[in-house]
Amino acid sequence: MExxxxxxxxxxxxxxxxxxxxxxxxxxxxxxxxxxxQKSRAGGYHKVGFEGGQMxxxxxxxxxxxxxxxxxxxxxxxxxxxxxxxAAEVNLMVLKQAGLVGELAKVVKIIKTGExxxxxxxxxxxxxxxxxxxxxxxxxxxx
Length: 143
Known about the structure:
Largest sheet: 3 strands, parallel
Mean pLDDT: 94
Number of helices: 4
């Protein structure tokens, strides 16, 4: 590769369209802006979603639903993931270090997806009713 052979990738550069330069250019007279109106003028501006004074769409539609900001502190762990964990004593810190829950997690719940075959002792961690039965059936306990 030589310095004099370097050029931009195909399609990376294109000519700037010069408007208002005569009828032969295809963009003469009104320069593609049409006739009259706010959008034809220099400095003509309106905010995104402005509909000419009509009540804008984002205000016409009803607000729906709610998503709690606190959900980011909740986490779920499956029985299958718990079974693959080596530790016999499991708490929030063990789950964070194993990467099974995020760093922000404060409340963790075990859900019954998959199976558990070994005894684990959970402390400070909740479980669904079915998951609790499965853990206790495998010889584990919840505290």
